[in-house]
Amino acid sequence: MACSQWGRSHGERSQGSERRAEDTFKGLAIYFPKEQWAEMGEWEKIRYKNMKENYEFMTQLGLPTPKPTFMYHARQPPKTTDESSESDEEWTPKSIDIEKKALSGKTKNRKRDQEKEVSTYSLRKRERKTYMEINEPNDDDYLFCEYCLLFFIDECSVHGSPVFIKDTAVEIGLEERATLTLPPGLRIGPSGIPKAGFGVWNEGEILPPGIHFGPYEGKITEEEEAANSGYSWLITRGQNCYVYIDGKDETNSNWMRYVNCARNEEEQNLVAFQYHGKIYYRACKIILIHSELLVWYGEEYGKELGIKWGSRWKSRKGIIIMHCFKSCLTLKSVIASFVCLRQHSPRYI
Ligand SMILES: C[S@@+](CC[C@H](N)C(=O)[O-])C[C@H]1O[C@@H](n2cnc3c(N)ncnc32)[C@H](O)[C@@H]1O
């Protein structure tokens, strides 16, 4: 089989791979203007494909799920009948409520714009006043909507307030505190990854993309030894100022210390990021029942564990950066980095 593949001409091979790519992204192109689709990178397409699949899967299970924003703009109705959940949503009154919601959002924006115009006009007539300067938000003031693929502050204009799953409240200092803080539905047990020790499993309900866990708890320290504990995230405090949050001690940390590192993009279901000076995990895809929660620790620690994502991870970062620029923001997310002694430079995107 390998011979026949390599025996083909380059042209045939690239035609073959283009066809495979077309099959992979079948039914997706209709949601984008032709020019945008032609320019879109493969990893961005994969991301949209995952969002569409997540949405269809959740809908099939009968779970109320916000429709990804890009799916509101189909150039033509989806063709196949096996995508019935999608076609129904698109063309029957069932979806009208959701679309109305999105539209009313737009209408609100339009109204707000009109109001803005009016106030700008009326300000000219008013006396001069001194206004307080509004501070630019910090990079870690932003959250990310997994459906719109856009950053937002406080709440997404389409999908509303973010959902944070609270830990079970347990006082600091108790033996096994970390385990006791597990939110209902999660369980600590042997990891599915060989030799990785314990891990965290979902045994409750299906967890939708976009759900948040955290913050990560532990000892805040500047001591370099924290970098070697195997349980520390790096926290950024202004330019060139960093501290560690070390979850090694089970009496002052929480369950998040037990979440293992994903070995590849397919099994990663959590993203770690810094928000208001703390580390949170966000589900980047559906987390089914009986599956292990797996986060990406960052390139350096990944290497320590012998995991290499190489160009895949770089492309993924590229996508997020692109979305920052698309939404006219500069650097709007601080992706967290797990730390090890070999690591010198904290990473942002
Ligand atoms: C934050 S702890 C995770 C919880 C840990 N498994 C435990 O039982 O306490 C990080 C440590 O878990 C192990 N680990 C996490 N992800 C791993 C992976 N993908 N492969 C191998 N070991 C992993 C490594 O020993 C790493 O230093």
Automatic annotation (TrEMBL):
<keyword id="KW-0489">Methyltransferase</keyword>
<dbReference type="GO" id="GO:0005634">
    <property type="term" value="C:nucleus"/>
</dbReference>
<feature type="domain" description="KRAB">
    <location>
        <begin position="23"/>
        <end position="93"/>
    </location>
</feature>
<keyword id="KW-0539">Nucleus</keyword>
<keyword id="KW-0158">Chromosome</keyword>
<dbReference type="InterPro" id="IPR036051">
    <property type="entry name" value="KRAB_dom_sf"/>
</dbReference>
<feature type="region of interest" description="Disordered">
    <location>
        <begin position="1"/>
        <end position="22"/>
    </location>
</feature>
<dbReference type="Pfam" id="PF09514">
    <property type="entry name" value="SSXRD"/>
</dbReference>
<dbReference type="InterPro" id="IPR001909">
    <property type="entry name" value="KRAB"/>
</dbReference>
<dbReference type="InterPro" id="IPR046341">
    <property type="entry name" value="SET_dom_sf"/>
</dbReference>
<keyword id="KW-0808">Transferase</keyword>
<keyword id="KW-0156">Chromatin regulator</keyword>
<feature type="domain" description="SET">
    <location>
        <begin position="184"/>
        <end position="298"/>
    </location>
</feature>
<dbReference type="Pfam" id="PF21549">
    <property type="entry name" value="PRDM2_PR"/>
</dbReference>
<protein>
    <recommendedName>
        <fullName>PR/SET domain 7</fullName>
    </recommendedName>
</protein>
<dbReference type="GO" id="GO:0005694">
    <property type="term" value="C:chromosome"/>
</dbReference>
<feature type="compositionally biased region" description="Basic and acidic residues">
    <location>
        <begin position="9"/>
        <end position="22"/>
    </location>
</feature>
<dbReference type="GO" id="GO:0032259">
    <property type="term" value="P:methylation"/>
</dbReference>
<dbReference type="InterPro" id="IPR001214">
    <property type="entry name" value="SET_dom"/>
</dbReference>
<dbReference type="InterPro" id="IPR003655">
    <property type="entry name" value="aKRAB"/>
</dbReference>
<feature type="region of interest" description="Disordered">
    <location>
        <begin position="70"/>
        <end position="120"/>
    </location>
</feature>
<dbReference type="Pfam" id="PF01352">
    <property type="entry name" value="KRAB"/>
</dbReference>
<dbReference type="InterPro" id="IPR044417">
    <property type="entry name" value="PRDM7_9_PR-SET"/>
</dbReference>
<dbReference type="GO" id="GO:0006355">
    <property type="term" value="P:regulation of DNA-templated transcription"/>
</dbReference>
<dbReference type="InterPro" id="IPR019041">
    <property type="entry name" value="SSXRD_motif"/>
</dbReference>
<feature type="domain" description="KRAB-related">
    <location>
        <begin position="20"/>
        <end position="83"/>
    </location>
</feature>
<keyword id="KW-0949">S-adenosyl-L-methionine</keyword>
<dbReference type="GO" id="GO:0042800">
    <property type="term" value="F:histone H3K4 methyltransferase activity"/>
</dbReference>
